[in-house]
Design goal:
With 433 residues, this protein is of the alpha/beta class. It is built from 15 helices and 15 strands. It has two domains: 208 residues, Rossmann fold (3-Layer(aba) Sandwich); 190 residues, Response regulator (Rossmann fold). The chain is globular and about 65 Å long. It binds phenylalanine. Phenylalanine (PHE) binds next to helix 13.
């Protein structure tokens, strides 16, 4: 705008509009990014997550991990001499709000990359917006395969559900010798419906039977009719690929109905609130996860110690993946030497051998990491006990030979029992993701 018309216009503007024009800030303000792009000044990245709502611990833990990484990066001088700032938006655990949050981050805050979400349905709502704006998005923990399929700008730091479903089915059928399972699905969730399918596929391939299938919708409070129908079929295990809030309630109601079978699930169970809600009803239940907080590896020990010092709590896997995502993004920014969308995208895509808390990150052509580790945990005495590890990389390196004699099918995932809970298992498996 040239000076003359600007001057005329200013005379008729209110003070609020005036300051908006002069500073280019939306009313909400102090957080607005200037100088995000280009080669100088602060680099501004966006984060969107469930800081409140049904899955609040997912967003809060991820955010803590992001902040821990960010302060370390900035403490060490930032990236190419520039500090990184993160602007965080709460999507209240809702998909529509996730889309709004990302729209705001991109159009108002001019963020050059986005970290989020945890829940796959929320990532799926926001990813097309990032992709069409050529703003790279890294989901720390969404496991549904469709998320990165949205496009070239969408990356993830975690394994995907075909791998997770297969691992849990193998653990239950091969390690626990179970033949009859029921499945209880949250049919409002892309994560739950997908993981249920992948679990079923392998459980059947292993010679097992799915004796009952039922569904609920996230946020339901009464699961008794579904559980009663499942009870009649007498399964040895009930696979419930849901999120922690619902799982706690489902476990309590199953025990109230006199059902003794263990429940089993995926990473969506991971929350400090899980056992707080479900209590004793969850004893003997299993779920798969991205890391184990008692892993003796130096990378995990150092991370856990730093996190506990800062937040006064043990980090869950969301925190670890939020931390890894932020560090991978900073590493890519450094290599790209620019915040330009396409160049940053290419630098993220080229991530290889990056050493993270949740393992080494090697991004494949589909923008998913290759060969990430998975752990199976059992809830025992109100704690999480390590039961098995699937580690394709350790196996590929030949450092930890597989000793599990039940894992005979080449090309399938087999989990191996760890003799002592809380320590590194001495076995690995034979599958690459
Ligand atoms: N994987 C879950 C999803 O895609 C989210 C999640 C990851 C939840 C890790 C807890 C821990 O929806």
């Amino acid at each position: 705008m040239d000076g003359k018309p600007m001057k005329k216009m200013l005379m008729v503007l209110t003070t609020a509009t005036l300051s908006l024009m002069l500073f280019g800030c939306p009313p909400k303000t102090s957080e607005t990014a200037n100088g995000a792009a280009g080669t100088e000044g602060e680099i501004v990245i966006g984060e969107y997550g469930s800081l409140t709502g049904a899955e609040a611990t997912f967003g809060v833990s991820t955010h803590n991990g992001v902040m821990l990484a960010l302060d370390e990066i900035n403490g060490a001088g930032g990236v190419n001499g520039r500090k990184i700032r993160v602007i965080t938006e709460d999507d209240q655990s809702k998909a529509e709000e996730a889309a709004n949050a990302v729209t705001k981050l991109i159009s108002q805050n001019n963020v050059i990359a986005v970290i989020g979400e945890v829940a796959s349905s929320n990532s799926l709502a926001a990813a097309p917006i990032c992709n069409s704006n050529k703003v790279p998005m890294i989901t720390p923990s969404s496991t549904n395969p469709k998320v990165t399929e949205v496009g070239d700008y969408i990356f993830r730091m975690c394994f995907i559900d075909p791998y997770q479903g297969e691992a849990m089915a193998n653990y239950l059928s091969k390690q626990q010798g179970m033949k009859k399972a029921a499945i209880l699905i949250d049919n409002k969730s892309d994560y739950s419906t997908g993981l249920a399918q992948f679990f079923e596929r392998t459980f059947l391939a292993n010679g097992g039977q799915i004796v009952a299938k039922a569904s609920y919708a996230k946020g339901d409070s009464d699961f008794r009719s579904q559980l009663t129908a499942i009870k009649e079929k007498n399964p040895e295990v009930i696979f419930v690929p849901g999120y922690y809030n619902d799982i706690g309630q489902i476990a309590i109601q199953a025990r109230d109905l006199g059902m003794q079978q263990p429940l089993a699930g995926g990473d969506g169970w991971e929350s400090p609130k899980l056992i707080e809600i479900g209590g004793k009803a969850l004893e003997g239940c299993f779920y798969s996860n991205h890391y184990h907080v008692d892993d003796p590896s130096p990378a995990v020990r150092e991370f856990v110690q730093k996190y506990e010092e800062r937040f006064g709590a043990k980090p869950d896997s969301l925190a670890a993946l939020g931390y890894d995502s932020t560090r991978v993004l900073a590493d890519a920014l450094k290599r790209a030497g620019t915040t330009d969308g396409p160049k940053l995208r290419d630098a993220i895509a080229a991530t290889k051998g990056f050493s993270g808390v949740t393992g080494t990150v090697n991004l494949g052509p589909d923008r998913n990491p290759i060969g990430k580790k998975l752990v199976v945990l059992e809830i025992k005495n109100g704690q999480r006990a390590l039961k098995a590890v699937v580690d394709p990389m350790a196996d590929a390196a030949g450092t930890t030979p597989a000793t599990d004699t039940t894992a005979t099918n080449a090309g399938t995932t087999a989990t191996t029992d760890s003799s002592t809970s809380g320590t590194a298992p001495s076995t690995a498996t034979t599958r690459t993701q």
